[in-house]
Amino acid sequence: MGKDWRYGRKARRKLSAPKIKKHRLQNLQNKKSDIHNNCGDQENTHLPESKNVLTDNNIELTTVTRDDDQTVIVAERENKNSYTGEKSFNSTIPVEVKCSGRRLVDIMFLFDSIKNIDHHPFDCTFRNLTFIKETRNGFFSEFVFMCNFCNKQEVITNEDPNSMTLNSAIVAGIVNTGQGYTQLDTFSAFLNMPNMSNSSYQKIHNDLIKCTENAALEAMEIAGKEEARIAIEENNVNEDRIPLVTVVADAGLFIHKTLHYLAASPDGLINEDSILEIKCPSSIKEYTPQEAVALKKIKCMTDCEGKLVLKKSDNYYFQVQGQLNIAEKKYCYFVVWTPKGFVVDKIPRDESFWKTKIEPFVTRFYMESLLPEMINSRFDRGLPIRSGTSDKPDNS
Predict the structure, then answer these.
(1) Beta bridge partners of residue 166, listed in sequence order
(2) What is the DSSP string of 178-213?
(3) What is the pLDDT of residues 338-357, one digit of tens each?
(4) Domain extents for the chain?
(5) What's this model's pTM, rounded to 2 decimal places?
(6) Quick check: 146 and 155 in contact, CB under 8 A?
(7) Treating both helix axes as pointing N-terminal to C-terminal, what angle do 181-190 and 198-233 enclose, rounded to 10 degrees?
(8) Confidence band (pLDDT; 50, 70, 90) for 66?
């Protein structure tokens, strides 16, 4: 005998959307009746009157009046996410989820998000919400809350989604400090803060590189156009009327070709034949260079026919001529800068000044003072340093 037909697979008819709605409404009414009956058995909980109110938003409210002048409102809200358009009634109390660790937040944005919570017409606030889950994307977090009264969900983020993302800001900071993902992971672990994944870090890192390159190219283009405009205004052009833009490059260390013990390090190189030397005296930060010279706050420069020039007797002039002759450049742009302004003095190379007032003295100092001290130190023995000016040999 074959299988019993009673244990076979049966095709059950599914209820249509209107019948499902009717079935759920009937169940809800039965539950309400049970609640009313249970409340009637208890002292001071008799509910003599109840009525349904339909609001402007098509939200059906059941108001129940107690003997002690208290009113209980049971809301039947429309579930907008249902594809059938029916009302959903969820009597389940949300279970609070614990969220551990630390988070980075935009504090004012977080405060504004909390203040803007308002569930009309029930006037629910943040104290009626229960935290149910967190959705993280790297350091960006979405905190999902559910209202205990009207079951409406609220999503609060730790920053404004329309601003520069927190993930991009963190990766940019890590890159600019010369660090990487390993250091970020260690830093996050010490802070007890969840970190982004390595793949997310690398993706954001590559995107930032492209953005940085584009921003740098755009800034270079703008600066080039501005420098060309200034060069044309100052008639700094070649025979073909092409603007000549002055470029300052790092100088490094220059060593004299024949006197290898002499070297110079100017502040910068300008074109092929000039160097740059900049002075920023803190003693004149409240003045312009012209005011400082007039008030005799600086003594290295003097006013020569309305133009500030470097004094040839000043130590800075010896420094400039030494740099020019060691580096074999034609000019030195000597700049005195303050927050109030700056002045530039273009100083030509003076070979006669170098040969008569600098080279003999620095050579004697090296040969008679520095070199002997390096070979046979007198300082370590408590003796005076060799001056390098005596004509008699020193055998000590």
Answers:
(1) none
(2) T--HHHHHHHHHHTT-PPPPHHHHHHHHHHHHHHHH
(3) 999 999 999 999 999 999 99
(4) 107-164, 248-357
(5) 0.45
(6) no
(7) 120
(8) very low
- How would you classify the pairing of strands 274-279 and 268-270? antiparallel
Q: Which helix (H) or strand (E) holds 224?
A: helix 198-233
The answer to whether residues 287 and 295 touch, using CB atoms and an 8 Å cutoff, is: yes
Distance CA(396)–CA(393), nearest Å, equals 9
Q: Which residue has the tokens 């049970």?
A: 34
- Looking at this protein, which amino acid is placed at residue 217? L
Q: Which residues contact 321 (CB under 8 A, 6 or more apart)?
A: 347, 349, 350, 353, 354, 358
In this structure, whether the domain defined by 248-357 belongs to CATH 3.90.320.10 is answered with: yes
**Quick one: which of 347, 328, 351 has its CA closest to 264?**
328
Distances (CA, A) of 366 to 103, 260, 372: 62, 11, 8
What percent of the chain lies above the pLDDT cut of 90?
A: 33
- The number of residues in the chain equals 396
Q: Which of 143, 173, 152 is closest to 78 using CA atoms?
A: 152
Mean pLDDT of the region 185-199? 91
Strands 268-270 and 129-137: unpaired
